[in-house]
Amino acid sequence: MIVFTPSCSAPPDATYDKIHISGGECIGNLMYLVIRCPNCGTFTYVDQYQEWKLCAICGETINAKRAQTYLDLHNHRDAEAVVRELERFLHRTGKSDLSEEEKASLQTAYAQWIRANAL
Ligand SMILES: [Zn+2]
Description:
119 residues; alpha+beta; three-stranded antiparallel β-sheet; two-stranded antiparallel ribbon; 7 strands; 29% helix; globular; binds zinc ion
């Protein structure tokens, strides 16, 4: 069972990171994807337009478009919290990966948290 505890200290208006185009006009909500390094299994995250991410642990260049997405969320603080939570979960349970059920429950937990914290 995954208990999802996002960054509660974040101010309410930080629930969504906004996409800004040059000039500062807001055009929507930026999404972040929680992915996993295919080489060493470390969790990390990218924004939705980011194609490559260098793994901080093993130096692998992760192709974000091909890596498996565990969760998409609206805020980089949440993405960091989820990455930490996933590492803790696997460490605690001794598992090497999440089951499909656990991935689904993670998404459900995040959706509920977003609704509960909606402005
Ligand atoms: Zn790695």
